[in-house]
Every structure is written in structure tokens, then in C-alpha cells.
Amino acid sequence: MVAVKHLASPATIPRLPACLSVLSYNVLLPNSQDGWWNYKMYLPPLSPPDEDISTWEYRKSLLIERIGLIDADVVCIQEVSPLSFEEDFKFMTENLGYDGVELFRKGRFRPATFWKKDRVELVCPAQHKDRTMLTTFRLNDCDEAGSQDNWHVLNCHLQAGKQGGRRVRQIFEGVTTAYKAAKKLKEETPEDMKLIVCGDFNGGSECGAVELVEKGMVDQDFIEDGEQVSSKAKKLPLSAPLNDAIDMDREDDNPVPSTLVVPELISIMIDQGNIETAYMEPQFSQQVIDRLTRIYKRFSKDSPGMQMTKADVEEWLTLINGRVGRGTEFRNAAKYMGWKEPPTDPDEKKEDRPPIVIPDDGVLTFSDFVAVYLDELRQGKFWGIAWDLAKLDEPLDVDEVFQARYDRMYCSASLQPTVVLDTISTKPCPNKIEPSDHLPVCASFQVRK
Predict the structure, then answer these.
(1) Is omega for the bond preceding 430 within 30 degrees of 0, making it cis?
(2) Residue 324 contacts residue 330 (beta carbons within 8 Å)
(3) Is 369 exposed, middle or buried (0-12, 13-18, 19+ CB in 10 A)?
(4) H helices within 185-307, ranges in order?
(5) What Rg do the C-alpha atoms of the chain give, in angstroms?
(6) Please, which pLDDT band fits residue 249 given cuts at 50, 70 and 90?
(7) What pLDDT sits at residue 13?
(8) DSSP H helical segments within 379-439, as ranges?
(9) What phi and psi, each to the nearest 5 degrees, are found at residue 122?
(10) What is the pLDDT of residues 127-156, one digit of tens each?
(11) Could you say which DSSP state residue 354 is in?
(12) Cβ atoms of 218 and 203 closer than 8 Å
């Protein structure tokens, strides 16, 4: 067995005979067009001289440098926007030489897979499933025996949130699709196919999708977020479970790095008094309520009845969102203040519908103001709430960093990792040198002898 070599980023993944290198990277939507809120991912709020750090152009320059230096054969990216994909990622071809590309067919947050045609050949059309995309390659630049083997690469961006069952179904379907592809390509032992599964699993070791991959099966007894992830046993159609490529042959003093490194907000933002409901139906901690109370009083102090009027709400929205008319804070505030969606024609296009407006005589009560932010909390927008509080001069005391390993790379038993590239950050991401809240994972593989 070949010992796995662990490299620390920044570094180039070595090109070795009869090996395939794969990089997986959640690059963080928004890109250049879809979304406006990216600046809220940076905490504390960026000062005017540094505001360009959150722009796509700046972040793109970091991606060009990072991806270009690593120089993997295949690059699996998550969170690209179909609205601007060709323009946003033309650097992959023009600057970095990735002249093969497949974009996932549907959705707002899409995966995309790139490859260098002088290194690998796409064997058959990509297969698109529920948030997974399979591409199958053969190596071009190797004369060794086995160079005509098929290499299956499954690019995943599993469903976020309280969706453990769907994540299990997604990864099961993706691996099963690879198995069926191996059979269709008449591989001798499709259950021993050469398979690399990578991407954003949106969960750590506690989630059913990871259990399924690492154990080879998951059954009705596995509970995630208080619910079954499957009504019956699911077993991958493989001869053995997948191996965690990033965790292989590590020394005790070189632990697997986290890939999601962000400010620790949950413990200070959510009331921990009732552990059972802290996740299912979260409520704000007292320190957040106190800050929202002071903010509300400041905006409503000159208004009749100490309630936020249309003018007060518009001032608040302009401060946090740059202008009135965008963001879920705006949409929910308008509804709480009395705006009602008019009846719509099923054939009417969305862009032709009357816009949401804040009623002239509407008021936003304190309880509704808190409810607006509770809606944000229950959508998982901890970062947005923390940014708003800081922008409104009521910052939370954020001292800790939340670290988790959501981004993963696995290989089938027929493959052996040769090189693993570790990217490490001790500071919350994104930041001046990290363009995403996720860090990339990368490894090179050879056929196990």
C-alpha cells in the first residue's frame, strides 16, 4: 500500500503517472449577478477601504490564484449561478486551461465540473440527479496498464437544513447512478468501480449521508435531527464502503482540517434554555432580544405610539440592505405591516406581478420586528442577523469560531489516495485571503495494486 503524502496549502498537487487528481470547492454564491448580500458574510462589517473584498471580482481573483496553483485534473465546484456562469467562470478555460465543463441542469445553486481535455477524456454524457452530477473519465497521458479504466467522479451539493432523509436519498441515488453507469460501460466488476465522491455534504459525521458512505449502509434506526433518515435499510451497491480520502494515513499531530470555518453565532444567538426546541423552533437569546429592543426604540422614538412607521422601516432597511425593496426582511416587514398579495393569474409571469410595497399607513410593532428576524434565524441566516446588529451599532460579542467538516472526498476500495492537500484557516471565512465560507478539499488517486 502506498503511503498518503499530506501537503499544506498553498501548494500544487503533484502530477503522477496513472493518477487522477480532483479538487472540490464550494465557492459561495452569490457570484457576479445572483444575489447582493455577500457583504453580510463578512463579520465584523467591512470598513469602506476594504468593501471590495466581498465583490465577485476580488473573490474571483483569489479563486483564479487558488485553483490555478493546485492544478488538479478535475475540478468540482458547488454554488455557481446559471445567470452568469459563462461569464463568471470563463477564467477556468481562458486562464487555467480547463476546456471541459458540465453545468448542472437546474436550480439556483448549481454544481459544475471542469476538466482538462489533454489529461482526461469524458467517456459518456454526464448524468444529473438530485443535487449530484456524475462524470466518467479515462486518463489520456498514461501508457501503464489500467490507463483505460473508467474513473467515475460524483460532484455533490447535498440539501442543507433539516433534510437528513433527502441527503441520504441524494447520495444513495448518486452512487447507484455510478454503479449503473459502470454496468452499462461493461466494467468487469461494477461493484468495484473506480469512484470518487466529493462535494458539500451540508453535514458532519453526525449525518446519515456520511453514515451511508462510510459504513456502506444506513437503516431505519439511524436518527438525524430527531427523525429517521430512511424508512428501511439502504445499502450502497459496492463491494465495500467508501474510504475517507482526506483522513487516510494521518499522524496524531495532523488532524483532518475543518472545511467550514465561520463565526460561532448559534451559542450566543439562540436561547439554550430548552435544548429540545433550540433547533426545531429556535428563539432568540436574551442578549439578542435586548439589542433588538434598543434598535427598535431608536427607530421608533419620534413616531406616534413609539411604533415603527413606513419612514422608520425604510430607514432601517436602507441601513441593512442598501436600499428598500430587497431581502426577506423587506418582504416580511411589508406583510406584517398589512401588504397582501393580490390574486394572481396562473398564466401570469412572475415579473408581471404587482411589486411588494410597504403600506403608507402601516406600522411595524416590536413583536413583528422581532418576528422578522426570527424568520431569518429559522432560515439559518445567523450571519445576516449578526451583520445587521453590528451595522446598527449593537454588535454581538463574537469570540469563538465554529468549525465543521462539511466538504468531503471519498474513494472506492479500488482506489488509493497518493496525495492529499490540506487548506487550513484559523480565522472566520470568507475573509481577505479566503473567497468563500468553505475551504477546498483536494486529493490525487491511483488504482490500488
Answers:
(1) yes
(2) yes
(3) buried
(4) 208-215, 266-269, 275-280, 286-300
(5) 24
(6) confident
(7) 96
(8) 382-391
(9) -75, 120
(10) 999 999 999 999 997 655 445 799 999 999
(11) P
(12) no
